[in-house]
Amino acid sequence: MAARSAISRRGRVVRRGREGGMTLLEVIVSVGILAIIGTLIYGAFDGMSRSRAGISRMSDRYHQGRAAIARISREIQSAFLSRHQPFDKNIVVRLTAFVGDDTSPADRLDFTAFAHRRLLRNTHESDQCEIGYFGSRDPDRDKLDLVRREAKIIDVEPTRGGVVNVLAEDIESFNVEFLDPITGEWTDTWDSTQPAAQFERLPAQVRVTLVLNGGPGGEPIRFETKVPIAMQVPIAFGVSN
């Protein structure tokens, strides 16, 4: 009896040991399940990260386009022409103008405006300046950017000089059209410096169309606005016609 009791107790101890542990197969199955769960969790977080990055990139593109259109509109509204010139044409040092060229894929617009912001105290600057918008090819990447040129001093070359900065990156096109207040028709070009064109005149409105690459689904993003110009007559205080 004592021997059978000892054997019975030993069997119960062995069974209890087996019940408290895990076999190699169970460990492999558990690790596989954990690996699958980890893979699913990583895929979910990776998808969320990609979606967030895509939404952020798209938001940046829309913000860049809206900011560019807003700035262009604000500065075109302040365009002006002036007839104040010395009687001796040989000593002319400044020329106001409004010149728009129809080029592909980006038009060019140069004009004088009351749009300069003086950032430093006691500088010999005013709010008058030369501004230009045109397309420029990025030398490092194969893409076209819309750039802004500003010269804080108006000289005799209203389409050259100044500092150039990128206004909108990777554009598809930049188109500018002008509403002639005399004919009531839209035209693709404007030149206030040529007697055969729109001599000493400003357009009634300017239609600006900016198309950016990299929109939803790879489609371009289109921005369009019409900008009225309040100052239709050149400044001529004390100048006889």
Proportion of residues in helical segments: 25-40%
Which residues sit in consecutive blocks of at least 5 with pLDDT less than 50? Answer: none
Residue-averaged pLDDT: 85
Number of helices: 2
The number of E-state strands comes to 10
Provide an overview of this structure.
This protein is α+β, with helices and mostly antiparallel strands. It has one domain (57-228). It is 30% helix and 27% strand. The protein is built from 2 helices and 10 strands. The chain has helices at 2-20, 24-77, and strands at residues 98-101, 108-114, 128-137, 144-151, 163-168, 171-179, 186-187, 190-191, 205-212, 221-228. It has a 6-stranded antiparallel beta sheet, covered by helices on one side. Strand 1 and strand 2 (108-114) form a beta hairpin. The longest helix is centred in the first third of the chain and has 54 residues, at 24-77. The protein is elongated and about 105 Å long.
